């Protein structure tokens, strides 16, 4: 939760200072909590932010390797 709130504070600061531009908006990281309104208005999607707190502390892995989940986790720890 701490990292999510830290990311939200960073977005809020970028909005206040005008440093959040269309060029840096994407769907990665905490930018996924942004929604574009009209041509130039950007706001933080607080509903999405709150709904995703159920995932705080969880980590997922996706792979196409034919290994058991324990083997995947063990190999990931060695990266």
How are the elements arranged and paired?
Layout: H1 2-17, E1 34-37, E2 41-44, H2 46-51, H3 69-77
Antiparallel strand pairs: 1-2
Which labels suit this protein?
single chain, 79 residues, two-stranded antiparallel ribbon, 10% strand
- Which percent range describes the beta-strand content? 5-15%
Strand order of the largest sheet: 1-2
- Provide the low-confidence segments as ranges: none
| Biggest β-sheet description | 2 strands, antiparallel
> Helical percent range?
25-40%
**Rg measurement, Å:** 17 Å
Q: How far is the first residue's CA from the last residue's CA?
A: 25 Å
* Outline: elongated
Provide the domain count: 1
Secondary structure tally, helices: 3
Give me the secondary-structure category: alpha+beta
Strand segment count: 2
Question: How are helices and strands ordered from N to C?
Answer: HEEHH
Rounded mean pLDDT score: 80
Describe it.
The protein has 79 residues and is of the alpha+beta class. The chain has one domain (2-77). The protein is built from 3 helices and 2 strands; from the N terminus they run αββαα. The protein has helices spanning 2-17, 46-51, 69-77, and strands spanning 34-37, 41-44. A two-stranded antiparallel sheet has the order 1-2. A hairpin with a 3-residue loop joins strand 1 and strand 2 (41-44).
